[in-house]
Amino acid sequence: MKKLIPRFRLQIKIYWSLIFSLTLLTSCSSENIPTGPTSLNSRFTEEQPSLSGNGRFLAFVSNRNGAHQLLVYDLQQQQFLRTQGLSRPNTIVESPSLSYTGRYITYITSDQGRPVVALYDRAAQQSQILTPIYRGWARNPKISPDGRYVVFETSARGQWDIEVLDRGPNIELDIPNGVNVNAP
């Protein structure tokens, strides 16, 4: 009789463990994730999110449509933005960073097989490489809220160092309307 009681308790524990596990699986199923061309989440890998300073725009790397690409999503309008010339076929795009209103996006891309820091201007719909002459590798670029400064890690000296790139005083700053700008 004593042997039946422990076995019965073990059966109850296993029974409740199975019910709890099945409940978790059904509540976290992929059917709960919205999908479609205008939804933020998809069945593909999305990673490396970056939020604009005003909290409206989100940039991230995605494997949607069978391509590794950098996408920009407007959280207020709940739709993706067109970014012509940002993601090129057969190139890497990594580590996006957004300025205050999301006008400027810095990211890592490949140029002749090595990673370089690039900047995309959403207003001009143009991308440019900011580090074409760096001998070392670059990673983790971040842009200042106003879009003037870009910081990144570089291995030009044989170790990982931090570089600060000043885009100059004559660039069009990414600042909210009505804000006073003091000359440097």
Automatic annotation (TrEMBL):
<comment type="similarity">
    <text>Belongs to the TolB family.</text>
</comment>
<dbReference type="InterPro" id="IPR011659">
    <property type="entry name" value="WD40"/>
</dbReference>
<dbReference type="InterPro" id="IPR011042">
    <property type="entry name" value="6-blade_b-propeller_TolB-like"/>
</dbReference>
<dbReference type="Pfam" id="PF07676">
    <property type="entry name" value="PD40"/>
</dbReference>
<protein>
    <recommendedName>
        <fullName>Biopolymer transporter Tol</fullName>
    </recommendedName>
</protein>
